[in-house]
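Researcher: For the record, we're logging two predictions in this thread. I'll number them. Prediction 1 follows.
Model: Prediction 1, sequence and structure:
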Amino acid sequence: MKIHLIRIGNSRILPLPESLLARCGFGEEAEIRVRGKVLEISPVRKLREGWEEAFKEMARRGDNAPLL
């Protein structure tokens, strides 16, 4: 997908379709990283996001026994 960058003062804006943002799990914030000449944009993960599902899977497999 190609998009046109919009210039506002000394900045540029990347207009991203709402459907694309929703598909990638974006909320109101994003994390941006630069790796070489690649700009990575990812949704901000909530603290402990996914832990509940991980614990349920551990219990299902029997991996939740206390360590002695």
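Researcher: Logged. Prediction 2.
Model: Prediction 2, sequence and structure:
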Amino acid sequence: MRVVLVTYGSRGDVEPMTGLALQLKALGAEVRVCAPPDFAELLVDVSVPLTPLGWPIRALATGAQETPELDVTQTSAWIRPDERPLPAGLEAFLAAGAEPVYVGFGSMLVRGADAQEVSRAVTEAVRAQGRRVLLGSGWADLALIDDRDDCFVVGEVNQQALFRRVAAVVHHGGAGTTTTAARAGAPQVIVPQVADQPYWAGRVTELGIGTEHDGPTPTAESLSAALKIALAPETGARAAVVAEQVRTDGAELAAQLLLDMIGRSGSAG
């Protein structure tokens, strides 16, 4: 069995990997460690092959190596084309009236409210704009609040196909959902919860293709106010323009760069 251990940090990060590597070797595994080049001697001492990873950590820590100098290529998003058809029930709902507003928070729980509160708030907000409601249940467990026929719930679905057929997308601001909505030309309202989501909310606002919700917990009033911006004709027009500018060759470019790098490494070796 072959095992690759990867770490990037100081001696305190690399040393534990050497202990694990030695135990794996004792159990018969072939082990290699990917770590900063500073620790080549340490790995030689324990007879574990090192694949140098990144810049020397000492140079970065002391400021001797300036960062934007790193050999980095920024590709566009890495996208897997989704060819799945939409469920028959969803197709029927879409065909039964005007474009709905999609609301879904993916693999996020909404902070500060339970599923029933959020479901009621987002449904009332969309209805206040005179729109039909399409709820993505997700981990937030969004669900119907009544039996009116202007609301429909879906689970995991082909968003690449769906977002081209909605009036707007209300979501948590994950990179994937943001990109999918932008590619589809769908105006967005982002209700950021954690991590990079505030960044994406800011970018959507700056680009004029939607707006950031004020805070992580939507109410009927706050989300309705945000939807007024997203559903404005000028926002939709801007979203359509930006959709044409979103590149879709990121995965292809990244794969080619990776193979080229491996090829150069092999030639050098």
